[in-house]
Specification:
Blueprint lengths: L2 E4 L3 H12 L5 E4 L11 E4 L1 H9 L3 H5 L3 E3 L1 E5 L5 E6 L10 E5 H16 L4 E2 L3 E8 L2 E7 L5 E6 L1 E4 L6 H6 L8 E13 L7 E6 L4 E9 L6 E10 L11 H12 L9 H7 L4 E6 L12 E3 L2 H4 L8 H18 L3 H24 L5 H9 L13 H14 L4 H6 L10
Parallel strand pairs: 1-2, 1-12, 2-8, 5-14, 12-18
Antiparallel strand pairs: 3-7, 4-7, 5-6, 9-10, 10-11, 13-16, 13-17, 14-15, 15-16
Helix pairs in contact: 1-4, 1-9, 2-9, 9-10
The protein binds flavin-adenine dinucleotide.
The site of flavin-adenine dinucleotide has 30 residues, from helix 1, strand 3, strand 9, helix 8 and helix 9.
Length: 418
């Protein structure tokens, strides 16, 4: 079976490795960028996806330069604790939660794709610009920067080309650009002193603004950590990935969050010390009624981009990849496999997309602010412990990353060649 993947992000590369592991050897990934550049800041991979990386033999490569996240702690802007919970191994999962640089994860997946499928399996400078699909026949056209094109006939085309997916646009030509909620995010990484446990994710917020901090690397000799931070607040700024003056970005952040006091972190020094600050609008996608049309399907952000709350973007892309490969290996009919993939994944991702529009588990911060806008000294005056625990547990069950499920569900690994 010839399988073509558009996009070499985490979804596309995880799909390539998973398909090879499931016995499919004619797999090619086409990437629009001219090279696999180490782009991106930090992201979190929840234990359900780390389990899949482990089963693909990638755990050592990925966690070599990652932090095993041990706790999630949520605070008011002034640093009063609202909620803390154990994460990963500390919470009893058999696999860790990893805070990792996106670039490292992409590079580890790309190396494994090439090791398994050969150097020619990842074609760069090849942007999908055309797609034709009729029953029994799928053709994709890829264009390079010099204007030359290449047409590929394939049995299956997987659109793993991210939130601005060309494959999705071909399937849903009237959809238009991703909607935004009017929030702007600033992001950066900077070396600094370890805070809290040194393996903590801290989230501060009120009813509109957020600050997220977690380490993604550690220098064992100096004890310093590479802190990944995200600041988000309402206000639209025109450009998607701005190159505007760093000083202006710093001013904007400190104007909105300058009086916030994250525990054990000097926020002003953190922002001032960050060499490169990126700015993005917060965007997602509406849930789709269908991902699969004949021999074409969607995966990762192309299928279900969601707001970045709850660490699910990359996590769910890995799960998509494994479920798709597993279903293709189980069914002799590709159409039945794609239906099974979509039946399993789409309803779950629709729920998660909706939940992330109210910022998933972080909505406790919104609730805390609304119930006690003037602040509080003891969270038990604002919430019962049961209420907070139920919000966290309910979100984990929605995303199928609760501990019972992750630790005990059957493996998605298959044997045999195809
Ligand atoms: C450059 C970049 C940096 C990011 N940084 C972060 C970060 O710091 N933190 C975070 O949490 N998330 C980040 N993300 C998003 C995060 O990686 C994704 O939400 C998640 O991993 C799901 O991945 P995906 O593979 O579905 O999509 P993506 O990661 O968006 O990957 C899609 C890939 O498809 C390629 N592509 C796009 N259009 C075409 C086309 N027409 N033809 C062929 N290829 C195409 C893109 O170049 C990209 O390599 C980043 C994404 C990108 C592209």
């Amino acid at each position: 079976m010839r399988i073509t993947i558009a996009g070499s992000g985490i979804a596309g590369l995880a799909a390539a490795v998973s398909l090879h592991a499931a016995g499919f050897h004619e797999v090619t990934v086409f990437e629009a960028d001219p090279g696999l550049r180490p782009l991106g800041l930090g992201l979190n991979i929840l234990p359900n996806a780390v389990r899949e990386l482990a089963e693909l033999g990638l755990l050592d490569a990925v966690q070599r330069r990652a932090i095993r996240t041990r706790e999630l702690a949520m605070y008011t802007p002034r640093g009063t604790l609202v909620w803390r919970e154990d994460r990963g191994l500390a919470a009893g999962y058999r696999w860790p939660q990893l805070s990792v640089s996106r670039a490292r994860l992409v590079m580890a997946l790309a190396a494994e794709t090439r090791r398994r499928l050969g150097d020619g399996a990842v074609v760069t400078d090849a942007r999908l610009v055309g797609l034709e699909h009729t029953p029994g026949r799928t053709r994709a056209v890829f264009e390079s920067r010099d204007g030359s094109t290449r047409t590929v006939e394939t049995d299956l085309l997987i659109g793993a080309d991210g939130i601005h997916s060309a494959v999705r646009a071909a399937l849903y030509p009237a959809e238009g650009p991703p909607p935004t909620n009017g929030v702007t995010m600033y992001r950066g990484t900077v070396w600094g002193r370890k805070f809290l446990t040194g393996e903590s994710m801290a989230v501060l917020g009120d009813d509109q603004r957020r600050l997220v901090l977690y380490p993604i690397d550690r220098d064992e000799t100096t004890g310093r950590t590479l802190i990944n931070w995200v600041a988000a607040f309402p206000g639209q700024r025109s450009e998607a990935r701005s190159t505007t003056d760093a000083a202006e970005k710093r001013k904007d952040i400190l104007r909105h969050l300058g009086d916030w006091t994250p525990p054990e972190v000097d926020l002003a020094a953190l922002i001032e010390g960050t060499p490169d600050i990126q700015r993005y609008p917060m965007i997602d996608r509406d849930p789709l009624p269908r991902w699969t049309f004949g021999g074409v399907t969607l995966l990762g952000d192309a299928a279900h981009a969601m707001y970045p709350a709850g660490s699910n973007g990359a996590t769910q892309a890995v799960i998509d990849a494994r479920v798709l490969a597993w279903q293709l290996a189980r069914h002799s009919d590709a159409g039945a496999a794609l239906r099974a993939y979509e039946e399993e994944r789409r309803p779950q991702m629709t729920e998660l997309q909706k939940s992330n529009r109210s910022l998933g588990p972080e909505r406790v911060l919104t609730m805390a602010h609304r119930r006690a806008p003037g602040g509080f000294s003891d969270v038990r005056d604002v919430f019962s412990a049961e209420e907070l625990a139920e919000i966290s547990r309910g979100y984990a069950v929605t995303g199928k990353f609760d501990q019972d499920w992750v630790n005990t569900r059957p493996s998605l690994s298959v044997g045999g060649g195809r």
